[in-house]
Amino acid sequence: GAVVSQHPSWVICKSGTSVKIECRSLDFQATTMFWYRQFPKQSLMLMATSNEGSKATYEQGVEKDKFLINHASLTLSTLTVTSAHPEDSSFYICSATRQGAIRYEQYFGPGTRLTVT
Amino acid sequence: QKEVEQDPGPLSVPEGAIVSLNCTYSNSAFQYFMWYRQYSRKGPELLMYTYSSGNKEDGRFTAQVDKSSKYISLFIRDSQPSDSATYLCAMSSTGNQFYFGTGTSLTVIP
Q1: What is the pLDDT of residues A83-92, one digit of tens each?
Q2: Is the pLDDT of residue A100 over 80?
């Protein structure tokens, strides 16, 4: 149990276009989902925390108008990178905490590698 | 100063060796400590978690926390090639916000 999926696993897009990444908890209801980005040989950087039915909380320095997060249901959160630029190329990972679980029990998705050309 | 410091390695050991991975931190309020394993191009997988100080053992893995020194360790006994991955430490004070180390790349050579 506690499986988190992400789609797509890999995407290439042209500069100026938008890309949507989906994060799904497959076998549990996730009260909270987190979105991270990870550059090569660097740590996971938290971008935002998303609670079902409410607005996401963004970390300092993360542009909320550029990285749109929607958490419409207890099993789905989406991250849309709008007007993507090459510097947005990164590995994006979501995680989810199971409803009722202790919050440090984060279950991570497999990640989405975004390349902006 | 970074909240969490972790030597990125790479670390290379022969199969069967004992591996020691470490992180130091600066925030004395941290009380939840976690170790994650991340295979290439995959999301992190929770290996161990510890609350406050002390040791925790799970199979070949032992996690240690020394809050007085702000130092945590993960030991892997009888290391296997399948243990080859990047190991990330993470910590939190409230369980709401997590701070990750940069990860240590480990290769276990058959």
Answers
A1: 999 999 999 9
A2: no
β-pair type (B11-14, A112-116): unpaired
Q: Check CB contact under 8 Å for B45 and A44.
A: no
Q: How far is A43 from chain B (nearest CA, A)?
A: 4
Phi-psi region of B96 (alpha: psi -120 to 50; beta: other; left: phi over 0): alpha
Nearest CA distance, B44 vs chain A (angstrom): 6
Contact A111 B42 (CB under 8 A): yes
**Chain B residues lying within 8 Å of A91, measured CB to CB:** 41
Cβ atoms of B44 and B36 closer than 8 Å:
yes
pLDDT digits (tens, 9 = 90+) for A14-55: 999 999 999 999 988 888 899 999 988 788 899 999 888 788
Q: A41 and B102: CB-CB below 8 Å?
A: yes
